[in-house]
Each structure stands twice: as structure tokens, then as C-alpha cells.
# Entry
Amino acid sequence: MKAKALMVILVLCVFGGAAAYDMLFRPKPYTHPATPAPEPDKEQWQPVPDVRLTTLEGKTVGLTDLAGKVVLLNFWATWCPTCIKDFPGMKRTADRYNGDVVIVALSNDEDEQDIERFLLKYKEMYGQDLSADNFIICWDKGRNITSNVFNTARFPETILISRNSRMAHKLIGEVEWESAEVRSVIEGLVKSR
Amino acid sequence: MKRLMIGLLMVAGIIGGGTVPVRAGILIEDYKKFAQIPVLDQGRVKPLDTFARSYLEGFNGRERLKDMSAVEWLAELLFDTERAYRRPVFNIPNPKLVDALELERRKKHRYSYDEISASFSAHFKTWHSLFMKPEDELSLDQKQLLTLYRKVQAYRDISRSLSLLEPEFQIPAGRLAEELGISPGTKLNYTQIRRKERWIQQEVAAAAQHGTDASAEPLTAGDLQIIGIAKQLQSFDRDKRNQWLRVVPPQWGEATNAWFSPWGVSIQGHGSPQTVAFLDQWQALWSAYKSADNQAWTTTAAVIKELSLQMAGSAVAPWRLKLEFVFNKWKPFTKSLVLYLTGFLVLLGGYLGWSRAMRWVSLSLVGAGFLIHFTGVAARMVIMQRPPVTNLYASIIFVGLVCVLFGLVLEWRKKTGMGLLIAASVGTILQFLGLRYDADGDTMGMLQAVLDTNFWLATHVVCITIGYGCCLVAGVIGHIYLVQGIMKPGNRDGLNELNKNLRGVSIVALFFTALGTILGGIWADQSWGRFWGWDPKENGALLIVLWLVFLLHGRLAGKIGDVGLAAGMVGTNIVVALAWFGVNLLSVGLHSYGFTENAAFNLGLFCAVELLFAFGCYLALKYREGFLRL
# Structure
């Protein structure tokens, strides 16, 4: 009788232990690498490097100078068609937030004049003036900042910087700026103070 | 007490006498920190030590080379590639392959990357069409040749994992040096020169235009230099897809198990200011290795490890990596194998004299082996965060543990030496078998999707494997009964006692295999929507249950005698072996996740020997009794 009771207890212990183990240590399911996390871990956001960028007008602007606003740091080049395709949507996104969102578009062109020529052509094609307060175009001469500071080589790439100058997300390649996913990420950053 | 002390001293000697670190013959001495750098490989984060061991084993058949450990080999492959290419690492045991590659036959079957790749290059046109064929149309030798080709490619790719950090571009005097703002002769790496990749492409395009225009000036020396650099840049095209050494943790909210290789992070857009700092440290490690600066090497490796853990955040537990490193180094299963084997030999020696003392010594050795074996299984569970059995290798190790435990419990209760004999012999055999399967690479790899549930792994799989273990113990008792029946036919008490034990163990085996089979059906119902599908593995499990039911009921009904039961239990080993390994060899059905090649012959041999033994002994005993009654 004792032996039978012991056997029953043993089986119950095995099952109970296995169930508890399964609940406690179940490995996390795999998620698609490029999907932005819905609830990002803000503790892990790294501060943006305090680099000085040169605008086309020759002024310098620091990324930390833009603290208080959400910054979309965009790496692009005039020879990159996807980058140019991204601009209208990106500009509309910035316009939607009345100055709370600023785009810093860091060009990787070899020649500064290529950028100026492109801007004129862009205005003709899209009827959109990129020389606005919420769209700062800078030139990364020699690609030092893009490559050596941000380790970026694939265009376009956009780093979303929070109001307190922390790098929250990176959008790699062409972006659906009007998609609910991207809008919710940007809205989340705009709302967080 | 004295006997116990002798036993303990022997155990301490075996445990203490572990592997002595052998230096590589090169100038870096301490690889401890480097070995603990985390890397994502085959779906899980592991220390570089495990990465190096599993790949070296794949290339060489062994976890270390004659004069260097696996991490030393990996460091050489990453930082001193030319030397690594000359090292005879590849194991080609098949002489037909050696002849096909036009290599000289060697006693130790080891060849270098340089030798093999030269031969592949020379015959590539011949073999290219062969490699394009579906694998099931290839002969065994052709399959082996294809496998070797893939290994050679993998070896090359691993060696190029950090090629973006090697200063391979010597910048000549001229326009490029001026553009880059550096003095001529400076050596740059890919990440440094890629900033000017676009400019170089434009220059090459201009030069090409230049070349097509007959009236234009001929190409200048400057043009040719830039074309040379462009060609060199082009040679990195394959490296850009390199995904082998995933040492960079995700930085932008990607899945915690999506780590990147240095190339991946730089080319595929996952870079960040942190990855710049991280890759700078790898560059420093490269320099430290090249200049044989031991202090810088150790410090930098430690920094890389810390940075990596910092970047990975809570996704990686540092203590788990450390535990895996210690586990690799300590090799608990090899140690327990040595202890079981020694215990077995001492026990055999005891049959010649000093039997009581020898049994004590043997018990100490097997007991210590069991503790180490148990610690090893527990460590694997903690590292993998999984129940003990996750793949074929783990099932062998776990069944070994169950058998040794069963043997020790029998010994504790009966004190006849039989339990000890079972523990030592089965422990030795299964640990040895486990070591053979260990050579398949990382034994802690991620699970097939169907197995990805801790609940069923902890219940169905554990029950079935405990059942396998009990069956094997019953099988060994069957062997002992038959041998004793032939050698000591007059010892009726001993034989009766053995038969009693045999029935007891068989009932326990039946309980676990039946329970495990039913649980497997419930799991199958949840996973595949049906309780039973006549899958080979399901049939195998059912066969064990039916065989045990047949034997036990036959015995109860008086249709099978003691000898028949013993011989039948030897047959249980065959049924278990077929259900356990045979199903995987078929490579069909939903359970073929443990497929291994070249095991069919060994399995066939085992079954034939067991069958011969059981029939031989049965007939001999029955002949002696004078009549044939089951």
C-alpha cells in the first residue's frame, strides 16, 4: 500500500514539476528581427553622440541641441533612389506634429553641389520645399560621421531620437511612413516627455 | 574505512588528472577571456569556446588539435589566417576522396585548407555539375565529397568573419590618398576605405570611359592604382554576406536571438555608435594578436566580453555562459566514462581475488562517476533551460544515468555485485556511445519545432527514456542469468534471485514505456491533431510495450519459463535499440529529428550479436535440461 502511494506521489511530482518548469522557463518565441518592439525598453536606449553637423548654409548643428524635439536622423544620398522616394512621406510625418518632430537629413554625397542641384530638382518634381525649419539638410563630408560614428552603410537608414536625445529605434531601408506601425512608434516618442 | 579511502584516492586521481592545457606554439598565452566571449550560433547564445569546439570537431573529428585547443585554433583562423590555412585540420578518412582530390595518402588522414582548396579549384569544372545534382542522386563517396567541399567553404567563411577589420588596403601615393587625407603607404581596412567606395566607383567609371575613347589620353598610373583598389574592394563581395561569427548583440529592438556578424552589422544596416566601439575593440584584439601583446589581448578580450553582455542586456545570463565554459573544460561525461570503466575493470579484477575490497573500490569509482554524470546532466539542463532529454545525444547520456542509478539501487538493496556490474558496464557502454555522438557538433543545439515544449519533453520524453533505461537494465540481468545458468547451473538460489530481479525491473520498464507511449499519443494529438498515426517512432514505442507484455504475461501464464524470460529480455535490448536508433536511420515519418549516418551497420551488428547470444544460450541451457520448453 505504501509503495503504491509512493508511486502515485512520484508521478504527481513529475507532472507538477514539469508543468511548473514549463511555465517558468518557457523560451521566448522568435520574432522577426526587423520588427520594431511595440513596447521598447527605454532603459536600454543609448544617448545620441554629441556630433556637430554642417548644414548646407554652413551653420553647425549638434544633435543634442535638438533636445526637446523628436529627431529623425536620416542617412541618405542623392544617388540613392529609395532615399529620395522616402522624403515626401518623411516630410509629411514631420509636418503632422507642428514642430515637435525635426528631420535631420545627413547626405553622404561626394560633392556638396550635388545636393544643391538635387534640391532644386526635387522642388520641381514634388512641389515640396525641403528647406524648412523641420527639415535640416546636412552634408557629411568624407562620410566620417555616417561611417565612423553611426556604423551605417546601407541607405536609407533613419534613427529615431527621443526628446531626451536617446536613440530609440532604427528604420532600415525604405519606410512606409504612413503605416500604423511607424506612426504609433513616432507618436509614442512625441507623447513621451 | 581503509577500503573506502583507497577508492576515494583513486577517484580523486582520475578527476584531478584532467587535460593539461597545451600551448599553441604561438605567442598568445591566455585564451580564457577570449573563450568566454558570447556568440550566437545555431539559434542560441554560447561562449566562443563551444563555437570553436563544435566547428573544429566538424572539420577535424576532434575537439582539439594535437598542439592547440579549439579556441586557440579559432583565434588563429580569425587573426592569422594564412597560418591556419596551412595547418592540417581537415580529416578525410575515406581514401577514395583522398585519391579523387589527388592528395597523398596519410596515416592520420589530416589535410590543410590550402591543399584541399587547391585541389577543389583545379577540379571545380568537373565537380561543379556533380554538386548541382540533387543529393539523393549522389553516391556515398560523392556525398562525402560534397560535404567536404561545404566544410572547406565554411572554413574559408569563418576565417573571413573579421576581414573588414584587417588593414588589407595599402594606399599608394596619388588621388586616393589625397581624397582620404592620409599619407601614402598607409594601410586601411575595409571599414575605413568604404567611405570612399562611391568615389572609387566614379573614378573607375571615368577611367573606363577614358579607355573606350580612342582619342583620349591613355590610362595613367593613378587610374590603374584606383582600378586595383576597386578590384580589391570587389574581392570582399562574398565576405559581405558572411554570417558566421554572430558576436554583435541586437541594438535596435530586434529579437533577442537575432545577433549579427561584424559584416552583417556593418552592411545590413544594424550598426550603431555602440557597434562602432565594439568593432574597434575587435580591431584592437586583432592588433594584440598580431603583435603578440598578451596583456593587451587579455584586457581587450575581457572588454569585448563585458561590452557584449552590456549590449545584450538581460537576454544573456553571464553566469550561464561561464557555466558552459566550465562544463566544456571539465568534460564531466568523459570523466564519468573513465570512472565507470575503471570501476568495471576493478570489479572484474575482484572476481580473481580480494573480491570484497575490490567491490568497495569499484563502488566508490562508479558512485563518483554517477555524481559527476548527474552533475553534467544537471549542468546541461541549466545551460539549455530544458529538461534532460532534447536530442539523441542527450537521450543516450540520460539513459546511461538511469541505468547507473538503477544498478546502484540494486547494489544497495542486494549487495551481490550484480547491480554494480550493471551500473559499471551499461554506464561505460552508453557514455562511450554518447562520446561518439558528441562528434556531431554542438550537442546543445536548438530543438526541432515539434519538440519545442518543456512540458512534454519533461513528461513523455523522460518517461520513455527512463523506460529505455529500465529495459536495458533488464536486458543486462537477462545476460547475467543466461551466463550464470551455463557457468553455475547448480546455483539455483542465485538464479531464482536473478529471475525475481528480472521480473521486477521488467514491470518498472513496462510501467514507464506504457505511460510514455500514452503521453506521446496525447502530445501527438495536440501537435498533429491525431492520437496515433502509425509513425515509425510510435510503432517502435508500442513494440517495446507489446514485447514486455508478451514476456511478462507468458511468464505469468506459465508458457514461458525462467530461461525463456531471460533470453526474451536480451531480445528487449534489440527492440529498444530499433525503436531508439533504428527509427532515426529510416529518415521517414514525423520523428526523424535524430537522423545519423553510418549507424545502420553498427545497429545491425548489435542486433545480430544479441540475437545470437540469446538463441545460443537458450539452446545450450535447454539442451542441458534435456527438453525444449519455452
